[in-house]
Amino acid sequence: MHVDGRLLENNTLIEGDVCIVGAGAAGISMALEWDNTRYKVILLEGGGFEYDPKIQQLYAGKTTGQHYYPLMSSRLHYFGGTTGHWAGYCSPLDPIDFAKRSWVKYSGWPITREDMDPYYERAHKTLELGPYDYNMSFWQKREPAMEPLIENDTVVWNKMWQFSPPTRFGEKYKKNIVGSGNIYLYTYANVVNILTNESGSAIREVIVKNFEGKQHRVRAKHFILACCSIQNARLLLASNQQAPRGLGNDHDLVGRYFMEHLEIKSAELWLIKPAPLKLYMIDFGVTKARAELAIHSKKQEEFEILNGTVSLTPLEIARKVKPAIESWDQQDPRKSVDSFLGNIIKAEKESPQPVTGSRSYELFTRIEQAPNPSSRVTLGEEIDGLGVPRASLNWELTPLEKRSIRKIYELLGQELGRAGTGRVTLMDYLWDKNDYSWPSFTGGGWHHMGTTRMSIDPRQGVVDANCKVHGISNLFMAGASCFTTAGAPNPTLTLVALTLRLSDHLKGLMKHKA
Ligand SMILES: Cc1cc2nc3c(=O)[nH]c(=O)nc-3n(C[C@H](O)[C@H](O)[C@H](O)COP(=O)(O)OP(=O)(O)OC[C@H]3O[C@@H](n4cnc5c(N)ncnc54)[C@H](O)[C@@H]3O)c2cc1C
Fold first, then answer.
1. pLDDT tens figures, 348-390
2. In this model, does residue 514 exceed pLDDT 70?
């Protein structure tokens, strides 16, 4: 069922069993799980079915610290959310990513990769991925030309990625949501405030507003915020009528530990003989799986480094492509995507690759960022068109990121040299011993994580192992804001899996109470 929030009578009271805020990857995944159940599910979406500049403006905000993309263009604010722009790269986190690592402060999820496996498998269906199998041998059987650069995987291994079409949630699932008998989608229903009971122990209602000057109230037994990481933190912080520091923020953690994947060119690979390196190449819309090079968890432990992966692009192409941080510079996300993709397509056209492959490749790093309390989302001084303080992002890296990248290439160079395959030359910035300095082309993957991190200890995290906000009985967070650490893979597969896990937990709770 679909209701346009602008057409409702002012001050309508909407009531249901479950209220999900935000219809992006997390919100839609969650809602679909409840289709055809006896529960009334309210799905609140701030935008409509199409891009709307006035709604998108609500995402504008300031950035400080490490240079970042404009906040307004790094997400999409309408039905389907940022999946309208995502590229579909998917891979699960490794077991070590969930573990407590003595050399990574604030690491250690209260759940393991084993806990996540059944949900990863289910998330594969939502994201239209292939079989839940990330063994290189499985994919090599389908495509024998996928030969690894390094056979011995005790230091460097081949971590597989799968590619979603990419699923555009707004297009793929609109019919299912709108046609559902028990899911009530309200568009133009922007949540601007969350109100608790007197003691602050439970959510009473949320307030939604739109630019038609209408305001409505929504009541439910359980509330799930699925508005993306920056927005999840912003809403909790801005809901400060009853809790002056914001909801779930007794320990000043909401918005802190913002993490991105640092994405940066780092080295060149010069092969002894040209090779197409099919295992590592990507052809959008065609490639179902490919590998990136990664460091074995035992070596990460030995050298006390972060988890990261290395992708390869023929050097002739890579040298012509502008870094993402330079090409994705427009406030309007549609213009940014055009300039970003246009630049890649042009470089590929200008440098067609011979079938025998290239002799030289650019090595590009995607690495987790160490959790850092100073890397954070706060409320800015300016307010948006609906009266909510805008988000401010201070993106801050630590020396561990740079030290880890340097070590990854040192190990990779040694392994390729030993195998007689080729040699690796590091970029100048990695020779600079100042681990606080980063070159101008340092970018991120538009992956926002960690702002309502998970921990069983309320002094260490905002949500518990079931994504419930500590101290509030009926408020849950869905999305990468719950990540304790980032791992190297892009976040959407993991955030959808975590959302399906949350959905099961909630169903259990409601069954119990029925
Ligand atoms: C260019 C680009 C490429 C990417 N490529 C990849 C990739 O290859 N692989 C990968 O894993 N990830 C990728 N991502 C990231 C991916 O898009 C996000 O991880 C994912 O969309 C996050 O899902 P979400 O549901 O948390 O947030 P979103 O998808 O952003 O959805 C949030 C929803 O909440 C709504 N909303 C916000 N505030 C409110 C409010 N106050 N009231 C009501 N509704 C509200 C929004 O309108 C939106 O619909 C990419 C992102 C970008 C920008």
1. 999 888 888 999 999 999 999 999 999 999 999 999 999 999 9
2. no
Q: Which two tokens stand for residue 475?
A: 């408020």
Report all structural domains of the chain as residue ranges with CATH numbers, in order of start.
1-85+170-259+377-396+447-514 (3.50.50.60), 130-163+262-367+398-437 (no CATH)
Average model confidence (pLDDT) for the chain? 97
Other beta carbons within 10 angstroms of residue 165's beta carbon come to 12
Phi first, then psi: what are they for 447, rounded to 5°? -110, 110
Provide the pLDDT for residue 512.
74
% of the chain at pLDDT higher than 90:
96
Distance 357 CA to ligand 1 centre (A): 36
How remote is the C-alpha of 285 from its chain's centroid?
A: 21
468-471's contacts with Cβ under 8 Å and 24+ in sequence apart are 469/236, 469/247, 469/248, 470/248, 470/250, 471/200, 471/201, 471/248, 471/250
User: If you take atom 46 of ligand 1, which residue's CA is the nearest one?
Assistant: 77
The DSSP symbol for 89 reads: E
Rounded to the nearest 5°, which phi and psi values hold at 381?
Answer: -80, -30
- Residue nearest to ligand 1 atom 31, measured at CA: 24
Q: Checking DSSP bridges between strand 422-426 and strand 308-314, what pairing results, if any?
A: unpaired
Question: Whose alpha carbon is nearest atom 23 of ligand 1?
Answer: 25
Amino acid identity, position 331: Q
Distance 197 CA to ligand 1 centre (A): 30
C-alpha 352/C-alpha 366 separation (Å) is 25
Q: List the end-to-end C-alpha distance of the chain, in Å, as a whole number.
A: 25
Residue 81 in this model has a pLDDT that exceeds 70? yes
pTM, to two decimals: 0.98
Instruction: Please give the C-alpha separations between residue 408 and each of 189, 359, 366, 411, 414, in angstroms, as whole numbers.
Output: 46, 21, 11, 5, 10
Q: Is 45 in the pocket of ligand 1 (CB under 6 A)?
A: yes
